[in-house]
Amino acid sequence: MFQQIFSPSVQHTLDLIGIFVFAISGALLAVRKNFDVFGIAVLAEATALGGGLFRDLVIGAVPPAAFTDLGYFLTPLLATLLVFFLHPQVERIQVGVNVFDAAGLGLFCVAGTTKAYEYGLGLTASAALGLVTAVGGGVVRDVLANEVPSLLRWDRDLYAVPAIVGAALTALCIGYDVLNPLTSALAAVAAFVLRLLAMRFHWRAPRAWNRRSTVREEPPDQAAPPKATA
Amino acid sequence: MFQQIFSPSVQHTLDLIGIFVFAISGALLAVRKNFDVFGIAVLAEATALGGGLFRDLVIGAVPPAAFTDLGYFLTPLLATLLVFFLHPQVERIQVGVNVFDAAGLGLFCVAGTTKAYEYGLGLTASAALGLVTAVGGGVVRDVLANEVPSLLRWDRDLYAVPAIVGAALTALCIGYDVLNPLTSALAAVAAFVLRLLAMRFHWRAPRAWNRRSTVREEPPDQAAPPKATA
Amino acid sequence: MFQQIFSPSVQHTLDLIGIFVFAISGALLAVRKNFDVFGIAVLAEATALGGGLFRDLVIGAVPPAAFTDLGYFLTPLLATLLVFFLHPQVERIQVGVNVFDAAGLGLFCVAGTTKAYEYGLGLTASAALGLVTAVGGGVVRDVLANEVPSLLRWDRDLYAVPAIVGAALTALCIGYDVLNPLTSALAAVAAFVLRLLAMRFHWRAPRAWNRRSTVREEPPDQAAPPKATA
Fold first, then answer.
1. Which chains touch A (3 or more CB pairs under 8 A)?
2. Closest by Cα among C55, B53, B20, C53 to A128
3. Chain A hits for C149, Cβ within 8 Å
4. With contacts defined as CB-CB under 8 Å, which chain B residues touch A148?
5. Where are the alpha helices (DSSP H) in chain C?
6. Which pLDDT value is given to residue B226?
7. Where are the bilayer-spanning segments (chains A, B, C) (predicted)?
8. How many Å apart are CA A76 and CA A27, to the nearest integer?
């Protein structure tokens, strides 16, 4: 992804970091759902690679990077091992995991937008696909775990908006022909900081006006993330 | 889709109408599930574009139409805005929405079959893919919303059969080399009318013989669609 | 798949057997979930063809075999008819179905690995895709039926491990250039026997260490497969 912009090794390292933190989030959900070690590995792989896999299928980049780069495949397995043996410790540093996840979100929305544009999509479609790259893995994770995707729930802090901002900024930079390592990094940082602020101040998006839902809302203790116990 | 048959602008308008009404059905489910505005938009896009996206990936038409035509991407956002601000009104005209959804079903099963055949699939496979184009978006919608797909449930009025009839009629017309705007329209209308009749008379498909299911059936008030309140 | 290895007709017959038994497992779940006859057909098709369809999309083999070979499409419909009319009898021979499903698992992990390698993937990626070919249909089945994928659950007998072993053996044979009908068959038989042993002795994979899950475990009578009644 945006190979021309960063040196390949820097970009590859950033990709692997993003994959690693997304895999951690998948593995942690698998532990909470009582899955066995293979379930943990499957959910880690799907969360880490799902978004990029969908993007590559849409733009016709087959076989997708997830199946051609061994590092992409092995990194989620590393995350699986870590969570398998140390998950109470990993959950205790949930804040740290969330910060890394925000970094992954920032990196992936920029990289996804750039790669989609390189494959000939328009600017709007590239930004939309960048968004899907960033948030798609989390949706696959929640669908496989038979949960309502956290992305769609109103009682979760903003997740789509930071990715939309990062992808839109990247598309704007491409449109004005000023995409370079600096502006790419700025777009990623904007998404990253926005996500951190959303988590810090519990920013949420509005639900429909005059809502008269017939769906019973879950009790708050269900909706809250599980507490990590010492 | 079937560009040679209707004039492109007529066909494009029909496509956008189908996309719009499918998006409305996705957005309404999102409101019922208490999703926030981004959840509504995601479900609207997925419902409207999911079936065609799957078809385009299968026939190798990448990037899919959903990512190359800006109108396809923006129409579901329009539906999102409408439902976000006016959803009690939209639900009150649920009957009207259902009629449009039936129209979308008719249009998409014909267009999907035709496009699949143009890309070299056999007649049976084309009809199967036309069916998937028509009903796929609704399945994606229900899977993302963590519900049993309405398509599969026995307590829903026939939905697959009208699409199967429309797709099969289209494949027959292709097979006998009589596909033209008139026969295409007839196939779409046949699916449309069949769906309207199924809704009007609550036609349902049989379940397996000698059923001794161990799954508790949901109480009827759960299964019934939510009432719109004035 | 691996056309050069077995004579095409033998391979095709093996494929159809695998598709048939996977379709049976999808159709039986649909009956338990109270789906109507079209829901049974959809779940049978998705279970039987889902894994191979995903593999073909990833390796760029479009249109996928599922849409070019009429036999692949019709076999699940045959399974649907059988289960629709005779499902108490089919459930009573659940043991037999499980044995055939294990055979399908063995065949598909070998065939999937071989086909992925033929399309240019590396050995590790080919084995991973062989695994996905074998277990993907079951995941699609469970996601469509709105259940936690049986593949991920700790309270199910080992399913992934036999497929991993079969796929890895196949990749090893390719790597040492000794893949032939005999070694292919041995790899498939290894996966088959391992799965039979896992079912016989209820082998299960471990869950994460120091598990303190906040998810309530389902009561055992829910988790147990439904009894077949005479």
1. B, C
2. B53
3. 144, 146
4. 33, 145-146
5. 8-32, 37-59, 65-68, 70-92, 94-118, 123-144, 160-175, 181-201, 220-223
6. 41
7. 12-31, 38-58, 70-88, 95-113, 119-139, 159-179, 185-203
8. 9
